[in-house]
Here is the input.
Amino acid sequence: MPLLQPPPFKPKFPLQSGHLQTIFPRLFRKVSLPPVIRRKIDTPDGDFLDIDWHLAGSTRLAVIVHGLEGNSRRHYMLGMARAMVLSGWDCITYNFRGCGNVMNKKPQMYHSGQTEDIHTVLEYGLKHGIYEDAALIGFSVGGNQVMKYLGETPEMVPSEVIRGIGISVPCDLTSSAKQLCKPSNIIYNQYFLHSLKKKVKAKSMQFPELFPLKKLAGLKNLIEFDNAYTAPIHGFKDAFDYYEKASCKQFLHRIKVPTLILSAKDDPFLSPECYPIIEAQNNNNLSLQIPNYGGHVGFTDLPQEKQLWSEGRAVRFLNT
Here is the structure.
């Protein structure tokens, strides 16, 4: 599908900055939702996932997937879930392994290309609800997972899935990782690194031989962390082997359902390689929109609105 023209999103000053778009809602946005059904579900490999089920009494289900070191209660997750419920969709949000209140049981936690858990949550929702249609919405790393899931083995995607959405998607993980390690992004690099190091310390108490702590303090960026822990724990040779195999960009041409990737031009996390322009031009099922503003999972304005621009865009895409 041809590259779509940037939608008319122009936030007020001073939010015409990718960094402010990224940070502002994280610090100041508050989202409330009605009570949810919380469940712990089993995974085929003997682990578990914590899910939150937001009900609208619908025959349509949206599964929403968070980003790196996020969880089901982050503002962007709750905001999208609220937008979906108000537009007539039931939603399931879930926590990646190790991102809930209780550490997962297996040595493996999650990584940017993991798609098995999306499938588990989706099938659980379809089995335990009366749903005719389903959609997948992923943010950042979760967006990479969703796009990879839809294109990797499209014949395995349940027939109920009619649409997919990825927001602020690092389609090329190698270049995105290098982007995050630049000096201009040190605040994000250190934020993620601090959270991931805490996880390794917790996992080391479960599996000390697999999570040695000697090298932990010396790791200075996400690439070094992925090389030391993420890659070997999940069966990759090194960080760059992991990035190459986990990137969704190589699978986008195989996506069979209408899908939208929404990534802002001023996203500080994304390199030029993360905008799959050629892939969108060559796949009629794939739409790519690159607004000039929005930052990384931002798309906010002043005054803080109940619904972000990206949430309204997602609702329109799913309900068209």
